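Hey,
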Amino acid sequence: MRPFQGLSVQITSQSGPLKLHHDPDDDLSNEPCTRQRYIEAVTGATFKVKVSIHKAFELSSLGLDDAVHITIYYDGQKRGWYTDLTRATIVHQWSQGKPAEHTFSHISNFCQGTQQWKQGATTFGALEMKETVDSQTSLSDVQNLGRIQVRVARVRRILRSTPIRAMKGTQKPITEVTEKVLKGKAIANTVRVTDEVPGTEPPPTLYEHIPIHGEHGQALIFNIFYRSRNTLQMLGCIPRTPSPEPETAMPTSPAQLALLEGAGNVKVEGSGSGSGSWAKAKRELEDTENAGSRKRSRNSGAIETIDLTGD
């Protein structure tokens, strides 16, 4: 069975789709229904998460009103709500030659101060390091920092007698931690909300979701870890930036050429200081440096004193 066949997740920012880098330590044999990928997070960049269901995705086990249930978690918090793509909706999209898709781009929060719902875009905010923090942040609170998780499950839906409304309690993101709590994890960002505007209450949950029986009933999990470029290089997800080649210092003036001539490293022909003699001397210096194993001759004559004062 190929559980992820026909299913894709893409994260985009202002610059376009972010490349999903493979996890060098991801062992597919351990958890065949879980995928781990890394992306590069740039502080301050807004982003969206798009889930697409293509024709290769298995649907035969679903009834007409059954659905593909998609939930998203930011840093371990279910702040992005969920969506149901029914079998009928998916088949209709396929008949139009398009995949069935849903994009998570905003988070809704209830503001206790104004007693109103607000909605803002998701962004990679900076995670501040402090010696002490006001809130009691535990190890369990930070174990999911730096991770966006998408869960996709084929479910049967049963209509609830009483719909469940969205909770008005605000799930606050973790914005500051101590190095002790973080335990050496190279995490520099956290998911925050930006550009908040007045919004509406998320739709109520009308259905109870029950996983279907059999091998297709297991949830498919995408764990996408967002890290800085430097951290991705240290993890081996992307190549390290090559070090620049050392540059050989070249003489920049006739006076320096005169010193080199006295040392026997270059020979300046002619008494003038024009561009022709300067270029020829420079070429001779380069030829000398590229000579490889050839030995440079030492000037066995008397030491020449050169007056650089111009008097």
